[in-house]
Amino acid sequence: MAQRLFGHIILFSIALSSFGCQQQNAEPDLYAQPQPAHFVRLPDATSNPLTAEGVALGRRLFYDPLLSRDSTISCASCHLPERAFTDGKAIATGVGGEAGFRNAPSLANLAWINEGLFWDGRSPTLEHQALEPVENPHEMDSDWPTVLQRLRAQTAYVEAFRAAFGIRKASEINKQLAARALAQFQRTLVSADSKYDRVVRGEAAFTALEQRGRDIFFDASAELPDGECGHCHTPPLFTDQTYINNGSQPSADLMAMKDRGRGGVTGVKYENGRFRVPSLRNVALSAPYMHNGSMATLEEVIEHYNRGGHPGTNVDPKIRPLGLSETDKTALIAFLHTLTDTTFTQNPAHRSPF
Ligand code: HEC
Ligand code: HEC
Question: What's the 208 CA to ligand 1 centre distance in angstroms?
């Protein structure tokens, strides 16, 4: 990959000299995708390699309210680092308090999500996803021509796009480059240093209660009930990236579901009410829960699973009454708390550059 990028840079230099441009373009510095040892190794991104300049530009765009119609809302208004990039609301609200339809998900470890972004998986890549919020009337309610005009008018942005992507003039700033920068920044949002990770690395030990919760979660003990959780919330991401109806909404009639989720994207009726299994990393920080924010606390979530969820035609068979005792429930919650990663939530490199 380094070679490829280098090749591009040589081409650039030739282009620059042939256009007689006096601007000195420094090479963007390659930025290594963080790759925790116990995660699947990611292939090098060839179409949008991470560079220090690209990540810095993406971070700036992520925190800049200039992207919204009335300059009141940035990506970070709904994706706050201290809440693992969620917003604490059941349903996200955009410009002018306009309510959307769904709960804002965490942005941790999205570099590994390759089965579709958003709760319903309608977006294939981070580059594709990043184009949507600006024009979504329930989010930033602006349009790209306006945003590009604002970006081109600021010398700091022209310089930042030049450093990241080698543009020569302000008019070359376009939405695809902005989306590439946002995607690069988001690929650096890696959470892999929770207590759970430290236990996996042999650097810490669970308490007895956390261990009990872990054993229920992964069905690792014959004496304890099987919580079934680990089949869908598989480590290290704590999602297997499948689309599932976990009985989170009443769904007697597949066509009458309030939110069709995956079925709304594929048009397959049997997929109505299915959502991508969310990661549970930092879940103690990301209340309220589910695609519709219908569960306020982890206690409510555990009660939901213990009851076997709302009945429905396509609810997964692993969603069934679990027979958990009060101690089992407390233990599961204690285990979920071990997925909180303060190295991640407090990382200064993830915070606002302004
Ligand atoms: C008004 C609140 C709001 C704003 C502003 C906002 N988002 Fe989101 N974001 C959401 C909600 C809600 C969803 C889930 C929507 C869905 O699944 O249909 C989401 C989903 C996402 C996802 C998919 C995550 C996943 O797990 O699949 C990414 C990535 C993302 N947002 C990044 C951004 C970026 C980048 C910006 C700024 C350009 C931004 N968001 C602005 C509320 C917001
Ligand atoms: C059959 C697959 C499956 C099993 C088993 C399962 N889940 Fe889930 N889980 C999901 C899906 C799908 C969602 C999202 C559903 C939605 O938003 O409507 C979810 C959502 C959640 C959420 C909310 C996360 C968020 O960010 O909103 C938590 C917490 C959770 N599950 C914990 C558990 C625990 C604990 C167990 C075991 C007791 C468990 N899950 C078992 C599939 C599963």
Answer: 37
Percentage of the chain with pLDDT > 90?
Answer: 87
Residue to probe by mutation, ligand 1, list 60, 95, 106, 107, most atoms within 8 Å of CB: 107
Does 61 contact ligand 1 (Cβ within 6 A)?
A: no
- Domain boundary residue among 127, 157, 190? 190
Please, what sign has the CA dihedral across residues 345, 346, 347, 349?
positive
| Ligand 1 lined by 178 (C-beta under 6 Å) | no
Indicate if 148 and 265 belong to the same structural domain.
no
Q: Which long-range contacts (CB under 8 A, 24 or more apart) does 72-75 make?
A: 73/139, 73/140, 75/133, 75/182
Q: Is 245 in the pocket of ligand 1 (CB under 6 A)?
A: no
Residue of the CA atom closest to atom 20 of ligand 1: 118
Task: Answer whether residue 282 is part of any domain.
Answer: yes
Total domains in the fold of the chain? 2
Give the domain extent around 179. 2-190
pLDDT tens readout for residues 97-129:
999 999 999 999 999 999 999 999 999 999 999
Does 347 fall in a domain? no
pTM as predicted: 0.93
Per residue in 199-224, pLDDT (tens digit) is 999 999 999 999 999 999 999 999 99
With a 6 Å cutoff on the Cβ, whether 55 touches ligand 2 is: no
Reference 106, options 298, 277, 295; nearest CA is 277
Domain harbouring 156, CATH code = 1.10.760.10
Residues sharing a CB contact under 8 Å with residue 234, sequence separation 6 or more, in sequence order? 240
The Å distance, Cα 277 to ligand 2 centre, comes to: 6
Q: Does residue 29 have a pLDDT over 50?
A: yes
Range with lowest mean pLDDT among 15-19, 67-71, 159-163, 253-257:
15-19
Contacts of 18 (CB under 8 A, 6+ apart): none
